[in-house]
Amino acid sequence: MTTNRKKILLPNNLARAGWDQLQGRDDIEAVSFSNTIKPEELRAALGDAVGIALSATPFTAAELDAAPKLEVVARVGVGYDAVEVPALTRRRVPLFVSGTANSVSVAEKAMFLMLTLAKRGAMMDALVREGRWWDKFKDVPVDLWQKTVLVVGFGRIGTRTAKRCLGMEMKVVVYDPYVSADAIRAAGCEPASDLDAALARADFVTIHCPKTKETVGLINAARLQRMKPTAILVNTARGGIVDEPALEAALKTGQIAGAGIDVFAKEPAAVDHPLLKLPNVVVAPHVAGVTVESRDRMAITTVQNILSMLDGKPIRENVINKEVLD
Q1: Which of 238, 273, 295, 297 is catalytic?
Q2: What whole-number distance in Å separates Cα of residue 240 and Cα of residue 276?
Q3: Which terminal CB of the chain, N or C, has fewer other CB atoms within 10 Å?
């Protein structure tokens, strides 16, 4: 590497479209690293790096200490609970996320899980394959039409999920203490200031808030008890926001009717995880934001985020700790 080239680290699962953004950038040396790299190996690679993009790889103060030249960190996605943001902020290193690149994909996945559970998708498929055609009347599907859906979190993904629910002619109630009631009403939705009261009204609940100290365990046993026995819960946000043992108990006892889970407190989820044994649960391997199209969008945005910082023109709207830019 020549002395005038800047080294950035990109995960090996970054879509080709991201790498293509570096064409013509002779001032940049992009080095691939494994998405499952060991911490000590990552720290060694960070020694002369000015930027890094993270997929599932955690990034803590220890990694930052190993990177004296680091100027920018970017997440391939929008969640950043595996990144120690306060450490970055102390060093005035911005953390970028990929904006709206995967928000449509996650919103579609949330709708898919709601529809799959409401229409008994897995069960109906099994009935035909197993020759149990007339068992179809034992657990009849339900409509989304005119049902009340509670959207928890009204950011990039929550707003798009709400639009899709409105398109299904649902009544959309939104709980987000950081978004004004006027903004929620302007989107055609009803604001809710009391999460407990909103849960009691909802036929469907879909989680779209970030995982923070405030939201860990947000949907706990007490709140599951408030929900209707016909209600369906969907989580495409982060594992840990929903208390998994409490959810298992609620599903087993009929406290709620079903759950669609894309994210788990510990990932990958163990094959003997209790939730995987329940017939009223549909699961996915933390893949809501990953589609053919979104992978390209996230890769492009991630590399553009890094380059914007190195070029002195940071894309501010994609920065989590904006104070480091001031």
Answers
A1: 238
A2: 16
A3: C
